[in-house]
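User: Can you recover a sequence for this backbone? Please restate the input before giving your answer.

Assistant: Of course. Working from this structure:
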């Protein structure tokens, strides 16, 4: 099912001419490039550690939150998803 969500999301945005796509509700956070499209899945808010998207200025990042420690942090594997110069290109 995960591969189906990713594959169909990537295909859909390719047809639209977009550079990336953000999905969710699969409980599996993911940040990768697939067939020239930046695919991001926000994961889940109920599994620990929780994952979420953080948008600030011209960045969107995948982050984690640990409810036990109330620690909000950027995951070490997080990358820049989009920036304003890439979106305007």
């Amino acid at each position: 099912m995960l591969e189906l969500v990713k594959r169909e999301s990537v295909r859909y945005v390719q047809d639209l001419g977009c550079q990336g796509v953000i999905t969710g509700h699969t409980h599996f956070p993911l940040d990768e490039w697939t067939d020239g499209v930046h695919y991001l899945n926000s994961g889940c808010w109920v599994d620990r550690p929780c994952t979420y998207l953080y948008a600030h200025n011209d960045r969107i990042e995948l982050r984690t939150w640990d409810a036990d420690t109330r620690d909000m942090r950027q995951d070490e594997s997080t990358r820049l998803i989009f920036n304003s110069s890439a979106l305007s290109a």
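That completes the design. The mean pLDDT is 77.
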